[in-house]
Amino acid sequence: MNETVLHANPVPARTWIAITALGISAFSIVTSELAPVGMLSTLAKDLNQTESGAGLVVTAYGWVAALAALLSGAMPARISRKALLIGLMLILALSCIVATWSHSMSGFMSARMAGALAHGAFWALIGTVAAQLVPAEKLGLATSVIFGGVSAASVLGVPLSSLITGIAGWRSAFTAISLLAFATACTLFWTLPTLAAPQPLRLRVYCGIFKNPLILSLYGATACIISAHFAAFTYLEPLLTKTLGVPSASISCLLLMSGLSGLVGNIIAGKLIDRHIKGLISISLLLSAGALGMLGKGNAVAFPFWFIGMLLAIWGAGMSIVFVGLQTWLLRSAGDAVQPASAIYVAIFNAAIGTGALAGGQMLAIIGLQGTVLLAAGVIICSMTLVLMLKAPGISGAEGLG
């Protein structure tokens, strides 16, 4: 296949199939990353680990994905981006299937790290693909389809993985992810046209970004908030079952509720973020920390099932708004350096996931599940200080610290 991308109207059906396949690829990758959250106790038991030890899988995955995202910016232009995207999905499929053969923590971790490399490189590449596939007037729709896979993974991927784990075991869950990744790789092979490679980014471009105090503050706020969130979220399953008395069979239902609330948060952010970005992020952080703090103080006697679901919904919606808000703020603040600034943001985001999982596991051994959750809520509240120090950006850009 050696076709070129033609920006013509109407967009061929084959192109929309490719775009949909990219969205499903995003779904597969994010589901693979977050799947251990819904099966942590099962993984720990099967691999002879403590829950904090099993949480290291999330830590290592996040750090490797962050490194891969950064290094991908320097990838030579002569490497076919189409072949690379297909290869990354095949690597993800292979890593998931190898993970199902693992009977030790080291084997499972090694398989996951291969998937993390594919994860980071995928996100470094995917942002420039939609603009090559469709004309400008269709770009918003194409982008929403591709990145809709991320929201769908939070809404459906994690609870479905948890549900499959409860019915057939965690190996079956990873097998399903592997088959989905392989199917999307095949679809991309037949439908994705040849893609132009962006020019490699020079080191001085990155250096310039780190001299911008506003962007540095956004990076710092993102690192603190995401680390705190995943310090608690990684260990949500044992918190729900062991502390709040939720039956294991109901975990997937609560994860689905949290995912759906995150989708609602995305809708709210889309409606209000342009005019009220600073206030919306601050209120969302406050609500998320409040819900998280109540979960940390709760017990099976005091909290009925519906109330736990409501707290998870508030937490999920609030953090979804924060994710969208911080990324939007960055895009408005980066000027001509959007691509490298976004690559660094993706790296920091993934590194913060890993750091949060590691910190949560360490705190778990010292102060227990509830103490870890309360500490995470406190860090989120403190992170509001960084947000409140920033001057809200205009529609076309930000103005700095204020």
CATH architecture of the largest domain: Up-down Bundle
**Assembly form of the protein:** single chain
Output the number of helix runs.
15
Task: Name the shape in a single word.
Answer: globular
Uncertain segments are 1-8, 396-402
What does this entry look like structurally?
With 402 residues, the chain is mainly α. The chain has two domains: 1-200, MFS general substrate transporter like domains (Growth Hormone, Chain: A, Up-down Bundle), CATH 1.20.1250.20; 201-402, MFS general substrate transporter like domains (Growth Hormone, Chain: A, Up-down Bundle). It is built from 15 helices and no strands. The chain has helices at 13-34, 40-46, 51-54, 56-72, 81-100, 105-126, 130-133, 139-168, 170-191, 203-209, 213-233, 236-243, 251-297, 305-333, 338-389. Helix 5 packs antiparallel against helix 6 and helix 13 packs across helix 14 (305-333). The protein is globular, with a radius of gyration of 21 Å. Mean pLDDT is 84; it is low at 1-8 and 396-402. It is found in: Cell membrane. InterPro entries: MFS, MFS_dom, MFS_Efflux_Transporters, MFS_trans_sf. It is a multi-pass membrane protein. Its main location: membrane. Keywords: Cell membrane, Membrane, Transmembrane, Transmembrane helix.
Brief synopsis:
Its main location: membrane. This protein is mostly helical and 402 residues long.
Name its key features:
membrane; disordered N terminus; Growth Hormone, Chain: A; mainly alpha; 402 residues; globular; MFS; MFS_Efflux_Transporters; 78% helix; cell membrane; disordered C terminus
